[in-house]
Recover the amino acids of this structure.
């Protein structure tokens, strides 16, 4: 078996391997999704390693590049994402070999950490390879028992907020803690161009941009507030307008509850989401340090739901 770097011509074979190994499940496998995720990412192309045996592709491991920032300091990271082993070659340690090899590959590229949100089946394997449990993302929930359950379709016109997005991406966001670096091109790539989910927004076109999506789950329809950006402190009129627009949009969505990052909620002064306490019920976050100069577990993380969504 040989381990080698991936190139663009490998993409069709990678997609077939993902389908054979994982099926379509909740996230359909396609070249369009792979290109968007690993080639068009504004943080850079993904480092990807492949395992071949007798000319046949039997394993793939990809890390998604991601930048965080804190007070102007850039923190480079990778998210452990796509991985697959051909069913005929499972049990040979290919997943671990590819993962550890890719870690060595990126150590000298200025990457500070690797993070991901593994499921219960894959978590033990990551822990054996040096990942640590940070914990579950805290969530702020607000239940809407009066909603009808019927959804009135909404389609956001992203061209209406392109100028605002340019301002947000050039504006130094004053968040508490470490959050995603909002560099030019990020917001449209992450939300408008995402081939998996349809994101919508609320905005006055000048001062705020709230990005959300609706999601069906075991608890019913969720109104997920992924990110909230402002160009400064909102006036009382702007705050009231946002609150009223949000309440109307939640009602028209038919969602049973809304959600927002519990890390961000206590420090923001715009949204009011009821009396329920922040609960540690979000996705499990695991972190993997790459060197002793940066210890991920000791940092003040300020993740949004948009930062940690699985895609």
């Amino acid at each position: 078996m040989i381990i080698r770097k991936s190139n663009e011509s490998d993409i069709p074979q990678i997609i077939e391997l993902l389908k054979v190994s994982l099926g379509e499940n909740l996230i359909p496998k396609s070249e369009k999704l792979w290109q968007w995720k690993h080639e068009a990412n504004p943080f850079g192309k993904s480092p990807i390693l492949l395992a071949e045996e007798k000319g046949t592709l039997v394993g793939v491991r990809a890390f998604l590049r991601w930048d965080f920032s804190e007070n102007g300091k850039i923190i480079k990271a990778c998210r452990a994402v796509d991985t697959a082993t051909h069913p005929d070659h499972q049990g040979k340690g290919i997943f671990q070999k590819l993962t550890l090899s890719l870690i060595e590959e990126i150590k000298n590229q200025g990457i500070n950490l690797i993070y991901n949100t593994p499921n219960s089946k894959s978590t033990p394997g990551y822990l054996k390879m040096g990942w640590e449990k940070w914990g579950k993302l805290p969530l702020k929930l607000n239940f809407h028992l009066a909603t009808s359950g019927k959804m009135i379709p909404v389609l956001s016109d992203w061209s209406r907020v392109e100028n605002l997005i340019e301002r947000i991406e050039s504006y130094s966001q004053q968040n508490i803690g470490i959050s995603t670096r909002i560099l030019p091109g990020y917001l449209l790539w992450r939300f408008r161009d995402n081939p998996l989910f349809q994101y919508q927004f609320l905005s006055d076109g000048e001062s705020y941009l709230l990005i959300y999506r609706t999601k069906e789950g075991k608890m019913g329809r969720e109104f997920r507030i992924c990110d909230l950006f402002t160009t400064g402190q909102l006036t009382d009129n702007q705050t009231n307008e946002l609150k009223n627009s949000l309440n109307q949009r939640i009602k028209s969505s038919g969602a049973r509850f809304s959600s927002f990052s519990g890390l961000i909620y206590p420090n923001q002064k715009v949204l009011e989401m009821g009396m329920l306490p922040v609960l540690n019920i979000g996705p499990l976050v695991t972190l993997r340090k790459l060197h002793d100069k940066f210890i991920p577990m000791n940092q003040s993380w300020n993740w949004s739901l948009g930062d940690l969504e699985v895609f």
